[in-house]
Amino acid sequence: MKSYVLVLISLIGLIGYAQRDDTNNSELYKDYREDQFYASITYNLLNNKPSGVSQNGFSSGFQVGFIRDMPINEKRNVSLGLGLGISTNAYHLKNLLIEETDNDLSFAIIDESDYDVSKNKIATYLVEVPFEIRWRTSTANNYNFWRIYTGFKLGYLLHSTAKFRSSLGNVNVSNNDSFNKLQYGLTMSAGYSTWNFHVYYGLNTMFDDNSELSGESMDMKSLKIGLIFYIL
Predict the structure, then answer these.
(1) Average pLDDT for residues 13-22, to the nearest whole number?
(2) What is the dihedral sign for C-alpha 127, 132, 138, 140?
(3) Rounded Cα gap, residues 28 and 18, in angstroms
(4) I want to staple 155 with a disulfide (CB 3.0 to 4.6 A). Which of 15, 79, 90, 183 is the partner?
């Protein structure tokens, strides 16, 4: 599915660039916009983990969406961006067991070797609203340029799961109310042409204030580091 989305966005971008290349209409050049479709791939980390909790394996994220580019200066190289997108995120855990009792989550640190764990993962699916302040060195017919985009992203949790698979049994948790529905954080993207560094720093916690591990608050926040690709 991810590969199909990337191919579709790439084709849209190529069509848009071709249209801009083939016209000599100065008014179109005057009103050009940049980087309105995006796709990113990230490595997901958990900040502020409780004592003894660790991650395991490669935790990945994928985001795709549209940002309306709104230039605010005559050169059109400074703009505001407001958009809408979706994201999927995985967080692989090494030794944290998440269980559900009467719609409340309980957390425990385990010795994974005692359980022979084959899967231990949190997954989240969000609809996101990014807002960016954008600076770039582009012109109407220059497609390779430097960019620095900083901003804020608000996400609404559509679906969440915590899956645990082991030789001693399986645990499945879906859409528990202890997951915070709203997720928000700071973003920055910077780079040249196709390759751009991207980071998201979560400002609020993944779980609500009542979630605890041995009396310690579950204040885990998301940190995503990866690459972002802009087109059209």
Answers:
(1) 43
(2) positive
(3) 13
(4) 183
Instruction: Look at phi and psi of residue 91 and say left if phi exceeds 0, alpha if psi is from -120 to 50, else beta.
Output: beta
229 SS3 class: strand
Residue 224 buriedness (CB in 10 A; 0-12 / 13-18 / 19+): buried
Q: What is the H or E stretch that residue 20 is in? A: helix 2-21
pTM of the model: 0.85
Direct distance between the N- and C-terminal alpha carbons of the chain, in angstroms, rounded to an integer: 21
- The pLDDT tens digits for 96-154 are 999 998 888 999 999 888 889 999 999 999 999 999 999 999 888 887 899 999 999 99
Which tens digit of pLDDT belongs to each residue from 37-60? 999 999 999 999 998 999 988 999
Over 50: is that where the pLDDT of 79 sits? yes
Residues with Cβ within 8 Å of 7's Cβ and at least 6 positions away in sequence, in order, are: none
What is the DSSP code (8-state) at residue 140?
A: T
> Using CA atoms, how far apart are residues 154 and 151, in angstroms rounded to an integer?
10
Supply angle C-alpha 88, 12, 184, rounded to 5.
Answer: 30
Supply 13's token pair.
């971008």
Say how far apart CA 105 and CA 80 lie, in whole Å: 40
Instruction: Indicate the residue type of 26.
Output: S
Report the DSSP beta bridge partners of residue 100.
105
